[in-house]
Amino acid sequence: MAGTVRLEVDGAIATIVNDNPDKHNAFDDDMDMQLFGILDELAQRRDIRAVIWKGVGKSFSSGRDVGSIGTLQVPLSHHELMRRGHRGIQRVWDIDAPVIVACKGWVMGGSFQRALLCDVRVAAEGARFRLPEVTYGVIPDTGGVAVLYEMCGHGFVSDMVLTGRVVSAEEALAHGIVSRVVPADDLDATVQEMAAQIASSPAVTVKMAREVIRHLALPQIRNSMNDEMIYQTFINRSDDFAEMRSARDEDRPPNYTGS
Asked: How many domains, the chain?
């Protein structure tokens, strides 16, 4: 059964639900387009005062469904595909309501980066965060590195990106990646309570408070995403990327040249 992303609305609170539990809510192209459509709808709604983003099953999302890579039916170049992805997720910034991400299980790759572009992240105990892209021969390309740099500084973001190591919920809290860590059974109730508190506040005040915070961060994030699009496109055409693929196909050690 294919995964889906759906929108549920209860009064002034909307919930985005990743629903692909058999694959830890890994995203394929169809799920991307469903998410972007939901963000576009939310950006146009004035009745929503808070948004929760969560996953069905054990994880928020393990990132990209590797089984779906290379199966895109739309004839887009690599650069055009990245541009579509950037434009789609950046709609989260056009939503007047704050977005709270309920992090549990795996929060990984592009899905971790998308969560970083939202307002607040709350982690369940046992949640694990990871950016594994370099181990696949590519770079993180969804804007999350810029957010991590602002939160954690050069050393920590370099460690995460270059080694691909797993970060626990407690370590994520210590570095400000999440604002709270709660027992797994309390995660849904906690984010629901937070959303209700925000939804009960004056809407214009919430909106202006978020604008002040975003004016501090968005220019740097947009610039970083522009760089990611250029450099990822270069990597996709590089000799080293081709060598990595050939070495895996031929079951031999790669011979990287840095070009």
From this structure: 1
Q: Give the three-class secondary structure for 200.
A: coil
* β-strands 128-130, 106-108 pairing: parallel
Whether 164 maps to a domain, the answer reads yes
Reduced to 3 states (helix: H, G, I; strand: E, B; else coil), residue 156 is helix
Question: Cα(247)–Cα(224) distance, rounded to whole angstroms?
Answer: 31
Tokens of residue 164, six digits: 């691909």
Kindly state the tokens that stand for 61: 């999302």
With vertex at residue 31, the alpha carbon angle to CA 88 and CA 2, rounded to the nearest 5 degrees, is 170
Beta-carbon contacts of residue 133 (< 8 Å; ≥ 6 apart)? 109, 139, 140, 141, 161, 164
CA distance 160 to 166: 8
CATH (domain of 80): 3.90.226.10
Tokens of 213: 């915070």
Two tokens at 205? Answer: 């005040």
Domain-embedded: residue 88: yes
In a domain, 107, yes or no: yes
Q: Is the pTM of this model over 0.85?
A: yes
What is the rounded CA–CA span in Å between residue 51 and residue 118?
10
- The order of strands in the sheet holding 4-10 is 4-10, 13-19, 50-55, 99-103, 120-124, 180-182
DSSP code of 214? H
User: What tens digit of pLDDT does each residue of 78-134 get?
Assistant: 778 888 999 999 999 999 999 999 999 999 999 999 999 999 999 999 999 999 999
Residue 123 CA, distance from chain mean position:
14
Please give the share of the chain, as a percent, with pLDDT higher than 90: 88
| Number of residues written out for the chain | 259
Tokens 């925000």, residue? Answer: 198
User: Phi/psi zone of residue 26: left (φ > 0), alpha (ψ -120 to 50 degrees), beta?
Assistant: beta
